[in-house]
Amino acid sequence: MSLTELSPQQKVVMQRSMFRAVDLIENFFPAKWDHNKLIKLEKHQRDFIDCIQFGFPLSYYKFEEFKDKKPPKGVITIWRRQVSKSWSCAEAIAALMIIEAPCEAGIVAASETESQLLIDKVKYLFDNSQFSKFIEGRPRLDILKLKNGSSVRSHTCSETSIRGPSYGIILIDESALMNEKILFGAALPTVTHGRRWVAITTPKGRKGKLVEFFFKGLESRPIICRNCKEEYPQKFFNADFPYPKFVELPELPDCEICGKNNYKYGMGYFAIPYLDPWNCDLIDAEELRAVLEIHDNSPLARQEYLGEIIDEASMVILKEWIDKNTNVMLRNTMVRLDGVAYVAGLDYGRHHDAASICITHTDKKSGEIVVDYMRTISGEFDHDTDWESIKKQFFTIIKFYRPVWVVPDATGLGDPLVEELHKDIRALKLRCKLFNNKKDRLGFTISHITKPDLIGNLIALFSRNPHALQMPPGSEPEIGE
């Protein structure tokens, strides 16, 4: 069919498809599970493919914003597994081999098999689309050529395999696992005169040059006023910019030029496409929440299932931090002061076979929160016995301190035990209230988003700031002694 035979709507589709890779993919390429259907890309895939083609996602930026500056040459994508990273790469390469012919692309993977699998995915897209006749000759395992002059070649992550070629685009799969000498000394130089290098990987901790580049890409983004287009560096504002939700902005003061308060991120040194695991059709949110709950929201589970980058300490509070910050002159004994409004916290901790009880108050002069007393109780995996033992000790401490608020961790205790705790407090006629952070639920519920922030704050507290912690005594006196 010639262009003159196309309907106006078909002409628009064709024009868009010959300009933007995302449109070509969705209008012409087959779905990976059913080649009789067309691909339907997720938002994170569309943004990623835009970054490969243009250096920025069209969902967030306009071409006019890059009239006076070049878009980033590097794209760094650190996502969790099973979100179609490899297929997105194959789809982008296949589309660009048509739109931007002659396009020369390189693929680098950890092994020969992995790199050839990506070539196979590109070949699948051509074989099952209207572009099957574009393929020139018989494809080899490591190279695919088109009649329009485009080609894609695969490499293993070795210097001898990568050194020499020049590419317009190079994709580096599982780049965090690659030797940095090979990555920066052999792979990236292949696009010295090309358009883009793309590093794709799953998170492997905070160490390494690639992760350093990732955070540099986030921190180098200017803050742009949507109203007057004034740009500010992030350090201009005294604010903490959120990670991993790095597309969100903290509360910022009004723009100094126009007085409006409507900002967005500009583009930094590198393009960093964002994936929200809680809003992705490829991920079942309820199943994800259940898996994280099974793993007690551990940092390693969050790295694997949410794609978060955890630090070297694996989000664990190290004993040496505690020792360094402990004031040995203080003792963890039960002492009650008159006129003090105490708060009691209870964490059941059934996943770790231990529970914690903490008594605190706020110092009226300094406004600082003081930890008055803490007790950790070992459990025994028997749910009923364990809870009864904990509850008995908890009420012993409650009767002694007579707190204003009791804050039970409803995440660990669960609704039935919090309700039981509430009834016991009322039955004993204790003058304390249960603190609830949700109107329809008793107790304090710590969400899957809040918990890592709490742990992160404690790590910052213990690892960087001098604080005095109370030292547990050799023996604890009984109440009344």
TrEMBL record:
Pfam families per UniProt: Terminase_6N (PF03237)
InterPro entries reported in the protein's UniProt record: P-loop_NTPase (IPR027417)
Name of protein: Terminase large subunit gp17-like C-terminal domain-containing protein
